[in-house]
Amino acid sequence: APDSFDDRYEGCGPAMTAALPALNHSEMEQNPLFKGVWEKAVEEWKNLRLPLSPLSSPAQAIALMAYTMEDLHTDFNKAVRVAGSSPQQYRDNFHFKTLHFLLTQALATLRGAQKGQCLDVFRGVCGYLFKAKRGDTVRFGYFASTSLKKEAAECFGKDTFFEVRTCHGAFIQRFSKFPGEREVLIPPYETFEVVKV
Questions:
Q1: What percent of the chain has pLDDT over 70?
Q2: Looking at the UniProt record for this protein, which Gene Ontology cellular component terms does it annotate, in alphabetical order (predicted)?
Q3: Which member of 39, 50, 106, 155 has the greatest number of CB atoms within 10 A?
């Protein structure tokens, strides 16, 4: 995923946070799918009435909820895969800046609460054969949904099946539309060494 937008927002988090309200409004006008799913996620999060901690804002919880809803993650990740090809591509054509930032911040916060514990997770993929050899360094290059439960991951496909140790992914079950999947979300910037094929 050489063109993936995988920023961690190091050093620019406060500026991005300040820009969020206007940016979110603008992106919702340009992206009806994002707007519709975000509105559903707001309602879903309100109805759950769960504690926000350790996240720092309701927007982070809503972003995680929106990501796990069926309609959004495919288009979002497709856009993430190409948004890093140039500054112009990111600025003019990536209409998920808010979601990307909030997910990145939420995962960093949840990782901190996990006290640096790495997690062994699974990811099943249908219709794609991943090619790598032992010793290669690889990354997903998008926000990759994985599960602590092998059976849950197998439901998503077996054409390529990953067993991954993630040290940047975070357990998001409490903030997921589908808590039974025991989801761990891996950020686009995490790299892995292939140890077995």
A1: 99
A2: cytolytic granule; extracellular space
A3: 106
Asked if residue 23 is part of any domain, the answer here is yes
**CATH code of the domain in which 133 resides:** 3.90.176.10
Q: Tell me how many domains the chain contains.
A: 1
Q: Higher-confidence residue: 157 or 150?
A: 150
- Name the E strands within the chain: 119-125, 137-139, 144-147, 160-166, 170-171, 183-186, 191-193
3-state secondary structure of 65: helix
Domain residue limits at 22? 13-193
Which residues are known catalytic residues?
123, 145, 183
Q: What's the chain's length in residues?
A: 197
Six-digit token string for 42: 């707001």
Beta-carbon contacts of 65 under 8 Å, excluding residues fewer than 6 positions away, are 41, 44, 45, 175, 176, 177
pLDDT of residue 27: 93
